[in-house]
Design brief:
By secondary structure, the chain is of the alpha/beta class. The chain has two domains: about 270 residues, Zn peptidases (Aminopeptidase, 3-Layer(aba) Sandwich); about 110 residues, Alpha-Beta Plaits (2-Layer Sandwich). Helix content is about 35%, strand content about 25%. The strands form four sheets. The protein has an eight-stranded mixed sheet, sandwiched between helices. Strands 10-12-8-13 form a four-stranded antiparallel sheet, covered by helices on one side. A two-stranded antiparallel sheet has the order 7-14. The protein is elongated.
Length: about 400
């Protein structure tokens, strides 16, 4: 039977003191990818305090899986929160600011973990509403970008015993108003790939550039040529981002260096376009370097897959949230974002959806991955209620 509007929000609000304390504890001691040992211990202590059985790993991997079981058979839903922080020096002025210089929860993972603990508390207290098991997955290394933490968790059997039927996650979103939740069927986030291009020319004196190919000039042509590829080779209605993030070459103003190294990222939201773009980049870089008399060696690494929300699972969650939050607080996103997320690996295994938890407000204008990013406290309540309502929505339709 459908619950009244804001039923789970009121339940979540009862957890606010604990949500506040959990968030502050995580935020105060942030840890980078694959270093989340303190964070893991905090999660384990919180789960034990809630009476939720938890699994950790003896091989040094920092993931944690809590389990909330029901007496009634039904779908197994996995809820996921990421644990790692970023190498940023905090400038929020919050009373619970980072104690560790140069490391900060600037992407909201502290909020995600607190909301997942809050959801575990609410579901445990209201276990009679469940029609199946819920797995609470605390995942390290989301920010790592290549292997990440989702794949190691899956390899360790996170979606087995019992087998997971649906997966649900969320991420704070500075583009969605506070109190609202963004959603989208299909592709929501891009595949974040990485390249390194080593351009080789002939070293020499700056006064005699004619004596050999100039690696810096060739590198400049490559940077410009990559942007021309984006605007003129691929279909303009199929989004692609190519960004060169670093250029390293040279030691002195009057020396032409032998090597220049470029690194950057490529973002696509279609698997076929992903393959085509890599081929285009490899070909264009070789041709541009060769046209200048230089050579180029390319290392191209694939990051996370495109994050694709299952339409049926997404609709079930949206229907449940429309009852809980009200349809006016649901924001259908028109376009995918070009950021990457290894939640995509879970969605490759089972149907599910990834939501955008609104944190935008007049008082909170800083963007994610910036030194002033501090989502407001009210997001903790909405995020907790969203996970609870979404879980029950997925379990209400029977086993997937």
């Amino acid at each position: 039977m459908a619950r009244a509007k804001n039923h789970w929000t009121r339940e979540a609000r009862r957890q606010l003191p604990a949500l506040r304390a959990w968030r502050a504890a995580f935020h105060r001691e942030p840890e980078l990818s694959n270093q989340e040992t303190r964070t893991r211990e905090k999660v384990l202590r919180a789960l034990a305090g809630l009476g939720i059985p938890a699994q950790s790993f003896s091989d040094g991997f920092n993931g944690v899986i809590g389990t909330v079981e029901s007496d009634r058979a039904g779908p197994v839903v996995a809820l996921r929160a990421d644990m790692d922080a970023l190498p940023i020096t905090e400038e929020t002025g919050a009373p619970f600011s980072s104690k560790f210089g140069g490391t900060m929860h600037a992407c909201g993972h502290d909020v995600h973990m607190a909301c997942l603990l809050g959801a575990g508390a609410v579901l445990t207290r209201n276990r009679s509403h469940l029609r199946g098991t819920v797995k609470l997955i605390f995942q390290p290394a989301e920010e790592e970008g290549q292997r990440g933490g989702a794949l190691p968790l899956l390899e360790r059997g996170a979606f087995e015993n019992p087998r997971v039927d649906y997966v649900l996650g969320q991420h704070v979103a500075a583009e969605v108003p506070i109190g609202s939740v963004g959603w989208k069927k299909g592709a929501l986030m891009a595949s974040p790939d990485h390249f390194e291009i080593r351009v080789r020319g002939t070293p020499g004196h700056a006064s005699t550039p004619h004596q050999g190919p100039d690696a810096i000039l060739a590198a400049a042509e490559i940077v410009t040529g990559l942007q021309a590829m984006v605007s003129r080779v691929r279909n303009p209605v199929d989004p692609v981002v190519v960004t060169v993030g670093t250029i390293h070459g040279g030691t002195r103003h009057n020396i032409i260096p032998r090597d220049v190294v470029l690194t950057g990222t490529v973002r696509t939201v279609d698997p076929k376009t992903r393959v085509q773009t890599e081929a285009w980049i490899r070909r264009r870089v070789r041709l541009l370097a060769g046209s200048m008399g230089a050579s180029a060696h390319i290392r191209y690494r694939h990051g996370y897959p495109v994050l694709v929300n299952n339409p049926v699972a997404t609709q079930r969650v949206v229907d449940a949230l429309a009852i809980e939050l009200g349809p006016d607080r649901l924001v259908e996103l028109k376009y995918p974002g070009m950021g990457g997320e290894d939640f995509a690996r879970y969605l490759e295994r089972v149907p599910g959806t990834f939501l955008r938890l609104g944190v935008a407000s007049p008082a909170m204008t800083a963007s994610s991955h910036s030194a002033g990013f501090l989502p407001p406290e009210s997001a903790l309540v909405v995020g907790t209620a969203t996970l609870v309502a979404g879980t029950l929505g997925l379990q209400s339709e029977g086993r997937g």
